[in-house]
Amino acid sequence: MNETQQINVLGWLIIIFLGISEFIFKEELSIITTGLGGLICLIIGLTLAFYKVKNGNAKQ
Q1: In degrees rounded to 5, what are phi and psi of residue 23?
Q2: What is the pLDDT of residue 12?
Q3: Can you give the pTM of this predicted structure?
Q4: What are the Cα distances from residue 30, in Å, to 12, 16, 43, 55?
Q5: Contact call for residues 12 and 49 (beta carbons, < 8 A)
Q6: Which of 36, 51, 56, 58 has the most beta carbons within 10 angstroms of its beta carbon?
Q7: What is residue 36's predicted lDDT score, i.e. its pLDDT?
Q8: How many angstroms separate the CA atoms of 52 and 45, rounded?
Q9: Is the pLDDT of residue 41 over 60?
Q10: Given a cut of 60, is residue 5 above it in pLDDT?
């Protein structure tokens, strides 16, 4: 598994964690699952999940 795939898996794990915690632990983790904190976590997770290496930055 290369570095890009590891980053993508980490992003999907963050998104899955947010989804599960939204339904199961809504009141306990409200700072993460609602409001601006939830939006920031979602943006970070989506950015990591769909990260692609540009050709100029690829290791040769």
Answers
A1: -90, -35
A2: 92
A3: 0.75
A4: 20, 16, 17, 40
A5: yes
A6: 51
A7: 84
A8: 14
A9: yes
A10: yes
Residue 60 has pLDDT above 60, yes or no: no
SS (H, E, C) 20-39: HHHHHCCCCCHHHHCHHHHH
Angle at 43 between CA 35 and CA 9, to 5 degrees: 125
CA–CA–CA angle 30, 49, 2 (5° rounding) = 135
DSSP 3-state assignment of 58? coil
Query: Residue 46 in contact with residue 11, Cβ under 8 Å?
Result: yes
> What is the CB-side half-sphere exposure of residue 1 using CA atoms within 13 A?
6
Asked if 10 contacts 48 with a C-beta cutoff of 8 angstroms, the reply is: yes
